[in-house]
Amino acid sequence: MSNVLVFAELRGAEPKKVSFEMLSAAKQIAAATGGQVIAAAIGDGLSGLGAKLGAYGATKVFVANGVAKYSTEGFAHILAGLIKQENPAVVLLGATAQGKDLAPRLAAKLGVGLASDIVGFRMDGNKFVAKRPVFAGKAFTEVTFLAAPAIATVRPNVLPIGETNGAAAAEAVLAADLGGPKAQIIEIVAGVSKRLDLTEADRIVSGGRGIKDKTNFKILEELADVIGASVGASRAAVDAGYADVSMQVGQTGKTVNPTLYVACGISGAIQHLAGMRTSKVIVAINKDPEAPIFQVADYGIIGDLFEAVPLMTAEAKKLLA
Amino acid sequence: MNIVVLCKQVPDTESKIKLLGDNSNYDQEGIKWVLNVYDEYAVEEALKTREAGKAAKVTVLGLGPKRCEEALRTALAMGADDAIHVEDPALDGADAFAVAKALAGALKGVDYGVILCGKVAVDDDMGAVPQMLAELLGIAQVTVVSKVEIEGDTVKAYRDVEGGAKEIVQAKMPVLLAATKGLNEPRYASLPGIMKAKRKPLVKKTAADVGSSAAENKTKVAGWSLPAARLAGKVFKEGELADRVAQVVKLLREEAKAL
Ligand SMILES: Cc1cc2nc3c(=O)[nH]c(=O)nc-3n(C[C@H](O)[C@H](O)[C@H](O)COP(=O)(O)OP(=O)(O)OC[C@H]3O[C@@H](n4cnc5c(N)ncnc54)[C@H](O)[C@@H]3O)c2cc1C
Ligand SMILES: Nc1ncnc2c1ncn2[C@@H]1O[C@H](COP(=O)(O)O)[C@@H](O)[C@H]1O
Hints:
The structure holds 2 protein chains of 2 kinds.
Chain A: E1 4-7, E2 10-11, E3 14-15, H1 17-33, E4 37-43, H2 49-54, E5 60-65, H3 72-86, E6 90-94, H4 97-110, E7 114-118, E8 120-124, E9 127-134, E10 139-145, E11 150-154, E12 170-173, E13 183-189, E14 203-207, H5 217-227, E15 230-233, H6 235-239, E16 260-264, H7 270-276, E17 281-286, E18 299-302, H8 305-320
Parallel strand pairs in A: 1-4, 1-6, 4-5, 5-12, 6-11, 7-11, 14-15, 14-16, 16-17, 17-18
Antiparallel strand pairs in A: 2-3, 8-9, 9-10
Helix pairs in contact in A: 3-4, 5-8
Chain B: E1 2-6, E2 9-11, E3 33-35, H1 37-51, E4 57-63, H2 68-78, E5 82-86, H3 96-106, E6 114-118, H4 129-137, E7 140-151, E8 154-160, E9 166-172, E10 175-179, H5 191-197, E11 202-205, H6 207-210, E12 219-225, E13 234-236, H7 241-254
Parallel strand pairs in B: 1-4, 1-6, 4-5, 5-11, 6-10, 7-10
Antiparallel strand pairs in B: 2-3, 7-8, 8-9
Helix pairs in contact in B: 2-5, 3-4
The structure holds flavin-adenine dinucleotide and adenosine monophosphate.
């Protein structure tokens, strides 16, 4: 009985993509531990999660319904109770705003270890060994666990999604009892962007100091619209007031993992690379042939971004039409 | 009300990371050590709160080898009042849980309303010590905080979440707040500040004093590796810009399968 528990994070009432990525990983782990994949979800107005999560490999889904707002202490309380009851060998959460806040609290509550933001894992017999980046991806460590369960947060967009035709999982009710948290969300201020968060985006178009003005981000927005991307920025662009701080990619901004990263007017300083070097394909548009960004770019275009970006938008439109 | 700020010393973000020959750790030779950037935001917020008359004293707390004194002195030079340094070889290689346990032990008998810290240390990139500490102390936490409002013993903190949205979280003191960029602009230590910092009290604590050691570890780093180097890509510089762009877009589709 060495099950693997996935905390299926939701957006509204639907599982996030990272939840499916985790279920697929959990299937591989469970194959080695000789257990089943179980899942837990907390939210409001939830239905059909047995089928949605079963498709990706869960055999049982514990659902706490009627919880409208996230609460660190409340979610940790619910999950700790479930973990004590089910005794999983490994627990996975998303390395998302919610998962990163929650997982360490949960680990400390249980007195067990945590590996955050893992990008890979291997099974050493039936022991889970996690691989995680340190120094913003300049190095990796392998982490082993000295207490059970092993808890890890999984970086979105990295682990592949496997089979999607599993049978519907059995649903079980989880008491929606938050246990009297001391902190409460009293208001949520919506973000300015309607696009997918950078940490979850599959494509990103980013602008740096070379963009010269806030209004010029429009040309990046247009390219992003055509290729279905989110829009990011360098710290120089954020500090100059061209872009919102939530758009910053890099060491002191967001770490991103898209399939495609298009860097426009970004020199490629080490702290910027720290946030995007693991992108699968990097395109750089810069008028300076010496810019360090070209050392990591798969495709480099030396030229003026104000000409090159609109041309790229037009080409992509033609191609994707 | 007093404030405690957690201060970790980390390699400068410019540092080149090399590994030891047996891949058991990174090579610390030649590293320039600094106060973790996110902890600078935390120190600044504590000082601003004290200057606004909402806190009486700012204590900084750090765990690590002897050199970490420098990070604590940096915070004292910025304006913190006193420091606690947990220094003991028994804590070498302590993981997030063992560190949180030690910090919790160091806070026994310390009177605080707010603990400020960074959201993540830029060396281990864990982002775990703050939440673990809050749990061990049994207090409220808010992480990734970009704005703080304090009214009496009520704290309102703005927490940055996905897509630029903010959750406004409210709690009564004591509360732990983990800072992110945007919270404030940290001040530089002035020369008189640096001089004064040398005479400010810095208390040492051992592993036994704080009731933790590497024996509390719940995880172990089994080995280190470096990322595979990215292969040099194709740079397009000759010919009409329109043709070059068209070529790249075509390759993105056909070769890279990224469109
Ligand atoms: C502790 C610390 C943390 C940091 N964290 C981050 C971080 O999280 N993220 C981050 O990005 N940076 C970070 N930085 C800053 C980083 O060091 C660089 O200063 C920053 O990334 C530079 O941004 P940039 O490339 O937009 O600007 P620049 O370096 O000024 O580069 C602008 C580029 O635009 C090109 N350009 C100009 N005009 C055009 C044009 N018309 N067409 C094409 N190209 C053009 C230029 O050739 C140049 O290469 C950090 C620094 C420190 C010290
Ligand atoms: N050894 C330490 N000494 C003092 N504070 C620490 C230590 N380790 C972590 N912290 C605090 O916890 C934050 C997050 O660290 P981490 O969980 O290691 O990413 C840091 O920004 C510090 O404020």
